[in-house]
């Protein structure tokens, strides 16, 4: 079943989450129509390879054209219209930056996998539950409603100022008319009546001036209250969601909504500022005793400028945290002399600022590192697919400076992976007479000089962003706080859902909890130290818990990914639990689990029954990445043979736990079917006959454990095919056993 088909079967609450990340950047109808094709492409690799991304973009457009031809024949007008719109979008927005669409699709597929993993969990994790708080959603709606109301109030005040201007012009005209009359004419009764009318008009002017100033004051107060409370909370929540997303959590949305709010508030404040300027202009033409403008206007203008300064400062954010293109799922870990990308956005989107703001990137203030590459760029609205005012640095690379003694400080394999640094950005906005200096920083990053340091550096990033919402605590690891075990386990599940496409279920998480704590625990409120997670070796082992887990992630990614995504690898189960699960099952039932004693190893255990009725268990020595590079794991399971005491090889693996026939579970992952092996005439390269490797173990009478799976018997495809044509299976296995006895 395709991933998209699984998504469509989710409950409505999960479908609503899916709906949130499909928009005009990547319309859902394309995801639906091209589901299988999209899932068969390597978008993650294309996100870091411009040539590959361009090819995939061109192929995507070809796929859309084919769909367009099909629906044109069906005369589906609505779908024809939507597909033409999508085709125009793909050609227009992404032609100059094809990697952007690859990033978008890769993220969408990753988020689908995370939601599918979350849906399979019986209970939502504490972190994810907090991110989807109904109170937060209600506040978002309130913010948008209040911003809209403020914008309307500012526009209504514009009309009041215009009425005031018209009223003053009429007063000015009538007053000047009277002033131009001769003295004798001024004493007439008609003129005296006109003077009384002018006095009434002046009283109305005074009332209207006070009313306009009062309305302006209320708009300013509403903006102040909104910025101080709900908008600030919204921005902090978005930054926290970004932290969680960086360590594998749900993709964070809401930045476009925040941009809309910031932009509308900025437009309202500039509108109020123009209204105050108009009042100043009216003041120069007419003033009087008790005039409220000279008293109130300076204070209001000062408050407007103050709010604009704060609004601009808060609007300068890091939209996408620093990340090496070679490791897109390990952001904030930067390797010296390797390029990384980072994207910034100004949430106040005004056309006047396009290409007018130049951003400078720097690193730390301790002069240990410098940034090489283009570190000054202008923000613009053309590079982003959504037209935001942003800038993306794509060619920055950190370099460690030499010490005064001429050697580099910590560069090399011993660079401290708990040392945090910060990428800082500064710029200046000049608009309508205001000059505002803006600064922002990335989340803390870890510098490495060797890829071997990546696992521990990533552990530091996980622990920091799990434990604190402080964006700039660079001394965090001087005294790292403990983490709640339930939250840590949730984040560990995210590592699997984001990196290898399937998260962990409650049983798998329980096993990890036991491994961390050394016993069965109720881990809801348990606190785990940083040292226990990443510094101290596991009991009786030469490696830490995190190194063990990271090696498993690497094993899954490179060697057993399809099997893991299908859910056929139980993986995290102790030997004791394994035997409890298998003891009552049909002989030949097996399960797959990760080795607890070997880094990056996977083994299988099957249950068997002795002649006296006793149950016995057999576990093969773990397969590591070296062996799995030579032979796919699914083929190992298909071809695995055991030589019993009577020297007759047989495959003991019949049913995947609990009762799935082996070929039904793994058949689609076999590299070739046995009856598809080449004939002798096919030959091999350079005159050699191709060989096929069959994994074989031998169980001795005094042992319940097979020998190493490294005992791989080579048998050429041609020999195997001939044997199948002329001999029975029993005869073939007898021939194999004979070869064993002479090897």
TrEMBL record:
<keyword id="KW-0013">ADP-ribosylation</keyword>
<dbReference type="InterPro" id="IPR035856">
    <property type="entry name" value="STAT4_SH2"/>
</dbReference>
<dbReference type="GO" id="GO:0051093">
    <property type="term" value="P:negative regulation of developmental process"/>
</dbReference>
<keyword id="KW-0539">Nucleus</keyword>
<dbReference type="GO" id="GO:0005654">
    <property type="term" value="C:nucleoplasm"/>
</dbReference>
<dbReference type="GO" id="GO:0051607">
    <property type="term" value="P:defense response to virus"/>
</dbReference>
<dbReference type="InterPro" id="IPR013800">
    <property type="entry name" value="STAT_TF_alpha"/>
</dbReference>
<dbReference type="Pfam" id="PF21354">
    <property type="entry name" value="STAT_linker"/>
</dbReference>
<keyword id="KW-0805">Transcription regulation</keyword>
<dbReference type="Pfam" id="PF02864">
    <property type="entry name" value="STAT_bind"/>
</dbReference>
<dbReference type="InterPro" id="IPR015988">
    <property type="entry name" value="STAT_TF_CC"/>
</dbReference>
<keyword id="KW-1017">Isopeptide bond</keyword>
<dbReference type="InterPro" id="IPR048988">
    <property type="entry name" value="STAT_linker"/>
</dbReference>
<keyword id="KW-0727">SH2 domain</keyword>
<keyword id="KW-0007">Acetylation</keyword>
<keyword id="KW-0832">Ubl conjugation</keyword>
<keyword id="KW-0010">Activator</keyword>
<dbReference type="InterPro" id="IPR013799">
    <property type="entry name" value="STAT_TF_prot_interaction"/>
</dbReference>
<dbReference type="InterPro" id="IPR012345">
    <property type="entry name" value="STAT_TF_DNA-bd_N"/>
</dbReference>
<dbReference type="Pfam" id="PF01017">
    <property type="entry name" value="STAT_alpha"/>
</dbReference>
<dbReference type="InterPro" id="IPR046991">
    <property type="entry name" value="STAT4_CC"/>
</dbReference>
<dbReference type="GO" id="GO:0060333">
    <property type="term" value="P:type II interferon-mediated signaling pathway"/>
</dbReference>
<dbReference type="InterPro" id="IPR001217">
    <property type="entry name" value="STAT"/>
</dbReference>
<keyword id="KW-0963">Cytoplasm</keyword>
<dbReference type="Pfam" id="PF00017">
    <property type="entry name" value="SH2"/>
</dbReference>
<dbReference type="GO" id="GO:0003677">
    <property type="term" value="F:DNA binding"/>
</dbReference>
<keyword id="KW-0238">DNA-binding</keyword>
<dbReference type="GO" id="GO:0000981">
    <property type="term" value="F:DNA-binding transcription factor activity, RNA polymerase II-specific"/>
</dbReference>
<dbReference type="InterPro" id="IPR029839">
    <property type="entry name" value="STAT4_DBD"/>
</dbReference>
<dbReference type="Pfam" id="PF02865">
    <property type="entry name" value="STAT_int"/>
</dbReference>
<dbReference type="InterPro" id="IPR013801">
    <property type="entry name" value="STAT_TF_DNA-bd"/>
</dbReference>
<keyword id="KW-0488">Methylation</keyword>
<protein>
    <recommendedName>
        <fullName>Signal transducer and activator of transcription</fullName>
    </recommendedName>
</protein>
<dbReference type="GO" id="GO:0042981">
    <property type="term" value="P:regulation of apoptotic process"/>
</dbReference>
<dbReference type="InterPro" id="IPR008967">
    <property type="entry name" value="p53-like_TF_DNA-bd_sf"/>
</dbReference>
<feature type="domain" description="SH2">
    <location>
        <begin position="564"/>
        <end position="666"/>
    </location>
</feature>
<dbReference type="GO" id="GO:0007259">
    <property type="term" value="P:cell surface receptor signaling pathway via JAK-STAT"/>
</dbReference>
<keyword id="KW-0804">Transcription</keyword>
<comment type="similarity">
    <text>Belongs to the transcription factor STAT family.</text>
</comment>
<dbReference type="InterPro" id="IPR036535">
    <property type="entry name" value="STAT_N_sf"/>
</dbReference>
<keyword id="KW-0597">Phosphoprotein</keyword>
<keyword id="KW-0175">Coiled coil</keyword>
